[in-house]
Amino acid sequence: MIGNMDANWNASMSILAWLPFNPLISFFILILLGKRLSWLMASVLSVGAVSLSAVSAVWLVQQLAINDQQVITVQLWQWFSLGNSQVNFTLYLDGLSAVMISVVTGVGALIHLYAAGYMKTDENFCRFMAYMNLFIVAMLLLVLGDNLVLLYLGWEGVGLCSFLLIGFWYQDKNNALAARKAFIVTRIGDTAMAIGLFMLFNSLGEFNINHLTELAAAKWQVGDQQVYWIALLLLGGAVGKSAQLPLQTWLPDAMAGPTPVSALIHAATMVTAGVYLIARMHGLFLLAPEVMTYVAWVGALTLLLAGFAAMAQTDIKRVLAYSTMSQIGYMMLALGAGAWSEGIFHLMTHAFFKALLFLTAGSVILALHHQQNIFKMGGLAKKLPIETSLFAIGLLCLIALPGTSGFYSKEAIIASLWTSATAGPVFWWCAILGALLTSIYSCRLFFLTFLGNARSSSKTEVETEFSAIMRWPLYLLAVLALLGGFFSTMLHQQLATIFASASIETNFAGEFEPHWLHIVAIATPFIGIVFSWFYFADYRQTSRINNDAAFAEKNNRLTSFCLHGLGFDWLYQKLFINPYCFIAKLNRRDVFDQIIMTSRWYVDLWRAALIANQNGNLRWYAASLGIAVIFLLGVALI
Amino acid sequence: MISLPLEHIFILASILFMIGFVGVIARKNTLFILMSLEVMLNAVGIAFIGAGSVWQQADGQVMFILILTLAAAEVALGLALLIRLQRRFQSLDIDKLNRLRG
Q1: Do the chains contact at A618 and B94, CB–CB below 8 Å?
Q2: pTM
Q3: Same domain for A499 and A621?
């Protein structure tokens, strides 16, 4: 029995070592052979590689659960050494990364399967699947890296894949611009994070996350200036990647990419990397309680902002994008309140139901021949009954109705806010307001898309036939979204050891929880639904006249303000982009360049003079000979 | 016999040399360039003869005979080339004959 265990353990280590390399090999084959592969071969290869990783991940999680030892570590090779510390290429699997790899590979595999159907007719299918595989590789490195350098490698890798996939249809200029915006905005956060890493290494001389946490606890007191700045800079990185408050503007534009990309990268996995980073570095954040409060503020403000913005959107994917921002806001709020495992749990359930929502939206968009405007949809419940019910399931989880997975995770977060030392009642009210907004914009979206009259101006046929590979992932995701709550105990068990020492002591007994807290929290989504049932009655009733103008949203100031993401794009345009472009235009001829170019000009002059001399004219040569002799004689004589 | 001062002879030789040189660079016709070259050679010859007579040395005359032979050979060769050029290109313009762009 013991021998069997050992054999299992060795097997787990090699499986862990292979985990990121399955998709990497598939990526290389796809990118090298490209269009020479048929659709079938390319999709079997790419989906198979990720599915293999998913199966391996399930096996690893199971091994982790049945073994006493809580960690599997595989050192593949030494990357480089800095001073006395070595930076190894080491994969490190504990409860936290186990949750992440199951989400990344599990949801990833389902989305790959769906994408194989969704992108079937695209001529660059192989390139698409290759990028998707590369993304999985980078994401696995991000969550499995045992040191911050490896994590940063994955971090930049997912950023690159995000850029490549947003701009996948680069022939359209808007897509390329959206890709560029996403890349630049996240780069701002990444720069902050890189500076934070340098400061961390400078003061601790170590990149390994476990050692780092121990050293930090030994070296710094709670509230030290240095650790405050480091935590703040790391928060900057997390904010950029997770599309939180100051750097959130890239996410709605990122919806320019194909829908499976939005589901995989911009909803389920990559955008939660910031949450993962903070959870992973919780040892550091605990030393800086002010930063924890900032994290909570970032989360609270983002979830409100995104909720208001989602209320006015007209594009189905942008509604979902803003809702993603707001749900990640919940995760940030949980982290800021020290409710680590609740945040990670919400990350997982959110990955399930948001992937479901995005993929179903993708099917709807495909059925309507790439119509994304919800004011041109309507009445789809009759034509697409399966998609409608799947979408409804996703929305119910998003609203967090009791029984769905979203309920377990979101209520857990909200419940932990009131008494937390770094959060408090204010944050609790923000979260409740956010939940109300969530349920209102979800209802609006559902009514406009699936109920009411068909408002599509073009009388094109609605495609209702989808291949099985586009249906089955949706069913599986729907099951996961509904039943994801049952992972709760397992997950909390796994995470308990990691965050055991990290619990924030709750506020003193004086501020006990009022008994109505939970009732309000549970009732809020219902209030939202009832409110929207009456407020958005126009949208859901079929008896109204089929008039596009009636459904054109009232074009008042407030709506357009919300539609444009509460004016952040406008603000950044005025504050940063315009001055920058002005300076760039001012210095169009580049002063420093001009200084350097004088030497070029000098050389050029001589070159011109010498070329003019070498003209092949015999008399000219004779004359220059004579002049030179006279000159030399003159010099010699005088 | 009046002996000329050396300076006068050299000035005469220099003037002749300069005339020849200017002829070489100013003339376009290859025939005239050849003739200007003769003038330059003769200017050098005058310098040798004059120096030889002033210093009562035979070397000057020896050198002149050498130069004369050289000039005769050069003219023979040069004129032959000129005839070939005239036959081939119907022109003796030196600027048009720079096909080698040397």
Answers
A1: yes
A2: 0.79
A3: no
